[in-house]
Amino acid sequence: MVKHPPTLTGAVAALALFAALAAASDAPRGAFWREEDNCRELSFKGVSTQHYDLGQQIISGTLTHTGRNPVRDVKVCGNGVCMMIDEGGQMKEGESAEFELHLPNLNAVVLDVACSVLHSD
């Protein structure tokens, strides 16, 4: 006989779901996280490109938080190649993080940065 874990029903299940969602959110009361494809809270600094004979390139640099609102889930992308920066961790004004994108070609690169921004009601 296969044993299954106990299931929650009714109000107990709703309370468990609410508690799980509250624990997953690190937003203060009255604030919320919003995903933004063009994260204006961050700026690129010291971006450099290294080309390699195998038709590959590495784009590296620093993202600096120049805005006012905390951000998290920062993602840097170039020509469809993306990397997460400290997934789930927050960046606040003045903080920086380095990135290094490995691209499989020598095409011109346009860098984008996406993130979740903490907003207040």
Our estimate of the beta-strand percent is over 45%
Radius of gyration: 20 Å
Strand tally = 7
Oligomer: single chain
List the secondary-structure elements in sequence, H or E: HEEEEEEE
Structural class: mainly beta
Helix content: 10-25%
Distance between the termini: 52 Å
Total of helices: 1
- Name the overall outline: elongated
Kindly provide the name of the CATH class. Mainly Beta
* Global mean pLDDT: 83
Main beta-sheet annotation: 4 strands, antiparallel
What's the arrangement of strands in the largest beta sheet?
1-7-4-5
Assign the CATH topology: Immunoglobulin-like
**If classified by CATH, what would the architecture be?**
Sandwich
Descriptive overview:
With about 120 residues, the protein is mainly beta. The chain has one helix spanning about 10-25; strands at about 30-35, 40-50, 55-65, 70-80, 80-90, 95-105, 110-120. About 10% of the residues lie in helices and about 55% in strands. The strands form two sheets. A four-stranded antiparallel β-sheet has the order 1-7-4-5, with no helix packed on it. It has a three-stranded antiparallel β-sheet with strand order 2-3-6, with no helix packed on it. It is elongated and about 55 Å long. A hairpin with a 3-residue loop joins strand 2 (about 40-50) and strand 3 (about 55-65). It has one domain (about 30-120): Immunoglobulin-like (Sandwich). Mean pLDDT is about 85; it is low at about 1-10 and about 10-25.
